[in-house]
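Dolichyl-diphosphooligosaccharide--protein glycosyltransferase subunit 4
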Amino acid sequence: MISDDDLYRLAIFLGSCAMMMIVLYHFLDVNATEDEPTDAVNQKTENSAPLAESGTSQLYTTIKVHPAIGNRLCHDLNALVNSSV
């Protein structure tokens, strides 16, 4: 049977491995590049509207999220801005 000391060492080892895997995953995720065709980038730029405009001041925010979440977030923000104007 496994002793308490062995179980403690195993838990510390597995927990440390899990933390290293999380840090490695985030490092790779942040430094990953997404190659999009130039036409797709130009089409996104043409179809996108500014988040908010009020007189001479404009609000632009840049965040990095998953594309599906980003599309839904932009849709919700545009709907919110358009409804309050």
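thats it. The two ends are 70 Å apart (CA to CA). The chain is about 65% helix and 5% strand. bye
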